[in-house]
């Protein structure tokens, strides 16, 4: 049938007469007689040469039937739609018969379903386009239509085999053609809608050849094709593989030699199929994970390949899952549709990540632009599943290879830091102020996030505050309340320059302060990408307020004459600044008494409170506190027996907290001063 077309076009080249004068028209037609089988699709070629006029010549085909060899019956024309006789009109209209133009001066006559009545002498005629008639304008050939006697039969059956079994199938091929013809036979294996795979064939000239998928096994003798008797051929496959599963059928063609000595397949037929199931005996499988390298730079792609090694993979059911640091990324069932989790689903939707089945045995995870946080361990897990009679799947066995760890390094950044500390040693209660300046080669397209951290003497790290790239401030857990009262302040003075201020410092604020800066740039897809990180630190020591806290009472006149004045001084050490809250109380024990009573108190906020025991003192006593808070003087005028006794001062050291509450840090009691009042 159709395979003859290409073959006949070759004949166009080799069969045309040569050596004729250019001006002499010559029409050539395919050499006859041709034997063709009833019901087949045939073609006849015709070619004109040596003509004058247009390059595109017209052709008209006619037939002279054996019953009236002198009478022309017109079939089809390339120029005249009314050319066909009534007997052919319907077949021409329905394209059961048509002319295919191969080139301007060559055509093929197609008869798609050859009938017995199509036998006869065919004439190809070319209407004249020359200035004068010179040469031949038509050519004839004979077509003989013979019955299609080829029969190809095999027993339709279903065979259930086990791996390493043998398979034997027979095919009966017969013909009863009177003319001399040859037969070719071939065996094929087909699975569903897949392209059939040739197993082995015997050509019309008796050459045995295996298809590419079976060539090696034929060479070792595991695949054979033998002739049994006159009409039967037997296919034998030893040592069956699971991949041999499918439908096996045989196909035969009957060939005849045309007058030009070429062979033509007159008819081709296939047998019914035998379904062969092959159950694998080895259900073991192994899995390996591969990637190109272990270290990457931010923005580079990475591809992980999970490779399944097993027999008969297309006929088994496997599902696969991908994991990152033991957390599920994605899974693919036997249908190979990926289901992704959480953040990875978002990245897949943005085209940044792909999970796919490359083939029956290869599964791929690809990240197109790596981030720093993609550093970690990757793995795949393959699970074999079994399909139940209800169509559901149940898990049988799972395997996974060793983890593959990868490291994602930041882009090389020129970020540099400078940190400024207002004082490396401060007194408790003083403010701490730090400056952190960053410079980068990326310039204005960069943004920075800053985190201030404190590492104490026990090497415990705590985050004080974080300022993200959008300018949002987030205090650390240990500093949240203090920050809410305004005790901690972070400010971006200008792009790349940040300050941290901690008001009313406490001893626990002592340690190593670090400024950690992360640089971000925007990628082509609009995402922010971390490109570098730097940190720098400075040490701060804080002197506790109560360190060295002591109080001393002094008097220059322990013996006082009646009616004279005298001074008592309460000296506080160390020398505190005026903002340090200290309260001082003078206490008095009259001569002959065993009890002390509060005489007067200079409070922490600068007020004066008098005791209610010795009212007379108040009219003749003055209390004065030096601006430095280190000296509280008690002056008494007109001394009398009432003022004789023992004096003592008590000092209390206070701290005002960030929430306006007060904490008493320490209290100290001075030595005793004994004042004697002498009669004049």
Protein model, in words:
The protein has 5 domains: 25-146, Immunoglobulins (Immunoglobulin-like, Sandwich), CATH 2.60.40.10; 150-279, Sandwich (Immunoglobulin-like), CATH 2.60.40; 285-409, Immunoglobulin-like (Sandwich); 415-543, Immunoglobulins (Immunoglobulin-like, Sandwich), CATH 2.60.40; 550-678, Sandwich (Immunoglobulin-like). Helices cover 6% and strands 51% of the residues. The model is unreliable at 1-21 (pLDDT under 50). It is a single-pass type I membrane protein.
In short:
With 680 residues, the chain is mainly β. It has five domains: 25-146, Immunoglobulins (Immunoglobulin-like), CATH 2.60.40; 150-279, Sandwich (Immunoglobulin-like), CATH 2.60.40; 285-409, Immunoglobulin-like (Sandwich), CATH 2.60.40.10; 415-543, Immunoglobulin-like (Sandwich); 550-678, Sandwich (Immunoglobulin-like), CATH 2.60.40.10. The chain contains six helices and 52 strands.
**Largest sheet, strands/sense/barrel:** 7 strands, mixed
CA-atom Rg in angstroms: 54 Å
Low-confidence stretches: 1-21
Average pLDDT score: 87
The computed structural class is mainly beta
CATH topology title of the largest domain:
Immunoglobulin-like
Count all strands and give the number. Answer: 52
Pfam family, one: V-set
InterPro entries: Ig-like_dom (IPR007110), Ig-like_dom_sf (IPR036179), Ig-like_fold (IPR013783), Ig_sub (IPR003599), Ig_sub2 (IPR003598), Ig_V-set (IPR013106), IgSF_V-set/TM_domain (IPR051102)
Main location: membrane
Organism: Ramphastos sulfuratus
């Amino acid at each position: 049938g159709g395979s003859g077309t290409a073959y006949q076009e070759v004949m166009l080249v080799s069969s045309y007469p040569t050596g004729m004068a250019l001006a002499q028209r010559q029409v050539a037609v395919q050499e006859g007689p041709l034997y063709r089988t009833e019901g087949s699709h045939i073609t006849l070629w015709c070619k004109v040469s040596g003509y004058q006029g247009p390059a595109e010549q017209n052709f008209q085909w006619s037939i002279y039937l054996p019953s009236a060899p002198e009478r022309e019956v017109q079939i089809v024309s390339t120029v005249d739609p009314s050319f066909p006789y009534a007997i052919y009109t319907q077949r021409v209209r329905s394209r059961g018969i048509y002319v295919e133009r191969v080139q301007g001066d060559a055509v093929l006559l197609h008869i798609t379903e050859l009938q017995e009545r199509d036998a006869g002498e065919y004439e190809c005629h070319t209407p004249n386009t020359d200035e004068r008639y010179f040469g031949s304008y038509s050519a004839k050939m004979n077509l003989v239509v013979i019955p299609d006697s080829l029969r190809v039969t095999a027993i339709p059956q279903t065979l259930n085999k086990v791996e390493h079994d043998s398979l034997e199938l027979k095919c009966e091929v017969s013909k009863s053609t009177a003319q001399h013809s040859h037969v070719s036979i071939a065996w094929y294996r087909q699975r569903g809608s897949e392209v059939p795979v040739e197993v082995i064939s015997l050509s019309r000239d008796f050459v045995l050849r295996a298809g590419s998928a079976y060539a090696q096994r034929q060479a070792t003798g595991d695949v054979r094709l033998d002739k049994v008797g006159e009409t039967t051929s037997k296919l034998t496959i030893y040592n069956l593989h699971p991949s041999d599963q499918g439908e096996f059928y045989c196909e035969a063609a009957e060939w005849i030699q045309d007058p030009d000595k070429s062979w033509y397949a007159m008819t081709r037929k296939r047998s019914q199929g035998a379904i062969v199931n092959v159950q694998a005996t080895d259900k073991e499988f192994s899995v390996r994970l591969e990637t190109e390298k272990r270290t990457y730079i931010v923005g580079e792609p990475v591809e992980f390949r999970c490779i399944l090694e097993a027999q008969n993979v297309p006929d088994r059911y496997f599902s696969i899952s991908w994991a990152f640091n033991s957390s599920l990324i994605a899974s693919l069932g036997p249908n190979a549709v990926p289901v992704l989790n959480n953040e990875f689903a978002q990245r897949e939707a943005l085209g940044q990540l792909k999970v796919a089945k490359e083939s029956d045995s290869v599964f791929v995870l690809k990240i197109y632009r790596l981030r720093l946080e993609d550093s970690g361990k990757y793995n795949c897990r393959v699970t074999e599943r079994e399909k139940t009679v209800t169509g559901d799947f149940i898990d049988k066995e799972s395997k996974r290879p060793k983890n593959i760890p990868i490291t994602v390094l930041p882009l090389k950044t020129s970020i540099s830091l400078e940190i400024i500390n207002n004082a490396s040693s401060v007194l408790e209660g003083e403010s701490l102020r730090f400056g952190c300046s960053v410079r980068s080669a990326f310039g204005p397209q960069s943004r920075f996030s800053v985190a201030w951290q404190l590492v104490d003497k026990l090497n415990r790290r705590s985050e004080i505050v974080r300022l993200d790239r959008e300018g949002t401030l987030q205090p650390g857990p240990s500093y949240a309340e203090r920050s809410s009262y305004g005790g901690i302040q972070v400010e971006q003075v200008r792009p790349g320059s940040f300050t941290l201020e901690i008001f009313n410092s406490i001893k626990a604020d002592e340690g190593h302060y670090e400024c950690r800066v992360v640089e971000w740039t925007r990628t082509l897809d609009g995402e922010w990408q971390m490109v570098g990180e730097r940190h720098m630190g400075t040490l701060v020591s804080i002197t506790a307020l109560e360190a060295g806290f002591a109080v001393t009472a002094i008097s220059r006149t322990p013996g006082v004459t009646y009616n004279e004045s005298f001074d008592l001084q309460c000296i506080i050490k160390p020398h505190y600044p005026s903002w340090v809250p200290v309260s001082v109380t003078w206490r008095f024990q009259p001569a002959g008494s065993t009890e002390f009573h509060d005489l007067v108190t200079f409070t922490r906020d600068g007020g004066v409170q008098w005791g209610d025991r010795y009212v007379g003192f108040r009219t003749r006593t003055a209390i004065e506190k030096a601006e430095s808070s280190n000296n509280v003087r008690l002056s008494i005028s007109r001394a009398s027996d009432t003022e004789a006794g023992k004096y003592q001062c008590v000092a209390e050291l206070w701290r005002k907290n960030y929430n306006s509450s007060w904490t008493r840090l320490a209290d100290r009691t001075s030595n005793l001063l004994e004042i004697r009042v002498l009669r004049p």
